[in-house]
Design the sequence.
């Protein structure tokens, strides 16, 4: 049996977490509008992170590991460009032997990044800039998958067959891919509408209303 005191304590806690069932039920019936990016400064950080991943990590660093099977015996591909291929191999030789070894489990994380995470970054950049609430669940899925991938890789980097001789540097280089997913979970988990706000009666813009609610005058 649930004690009434427990229910009351839970009701006090929910608004602190950013969710109120009473506000939610009332506001869910109101029209909504995107909150301008200028009022969401932390979302700019997420957009920049997604841009770096889309433009460099996924389709340069990771793609190189799919088009070049053996870093010790290869010809330069059309993409990525030769200087960037050399940069990836330099990192592997000096800090990250796992990157050059490319065992099957590692390649699977690369395929996940190229096939699934890359398109997510492109869509997420649009959704964060435009304030689209439908990106909330994909963001949570991405954050969970990315965290799992990075933790598995770091375990191999520290204790595995291809352990890094300079693990501290590898750990520091990978920390953003743990911190940003954690921050994104905090950003998305407690709000069903992370990017929009209710359009109340006193601040309605006629352009945001359905035709049936626009005044004829």
Sequence:
């Amino acid at each position: 049996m649930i004690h009434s005191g427990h229910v009351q304590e839970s009701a006090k806690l929910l608004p602190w977490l950013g969710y109120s069932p009473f506000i939610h039920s009332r506001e869910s019936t109101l029209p909504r509008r995107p909150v301008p990016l200028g009022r969401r400064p932390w979302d700019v950080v997420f957009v920049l992170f997604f841009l770096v991943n889309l433009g460099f990590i996924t389709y340069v660093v990771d793609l190189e590991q799919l088009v070049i099977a053996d870093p010790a015996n290869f010809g330069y591909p059309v993409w990525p460009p030769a200087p960037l291929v050399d940069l990836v191999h330099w990192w592997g030789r000096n800090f990250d032997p796992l990157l050059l070894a490319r065992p099957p489990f590692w390649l699977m994380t690369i395929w996940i990044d190229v096939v699934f995470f890359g398109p997510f970054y492109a869509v997420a950049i649009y959704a964060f800039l435009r304030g689209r609430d439908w990106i909330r669940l994909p963001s949570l899925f991405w954050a969970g998958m990315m965290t799992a991938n990075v933790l598995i890789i770091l375990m191999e980097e520290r204790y595995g067959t291809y352990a890094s001789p300079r693990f501290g540097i590898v750990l520091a280089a990978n920390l953003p891919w743990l911190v940003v997913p954690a921050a994104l979970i905090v950003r998305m988990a407690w709000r069903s509408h992370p990017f929009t706000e209710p359009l109340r009666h006193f601040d309605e813009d006629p352009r945001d209303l359905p035709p049936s609610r626009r005044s004829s005058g």
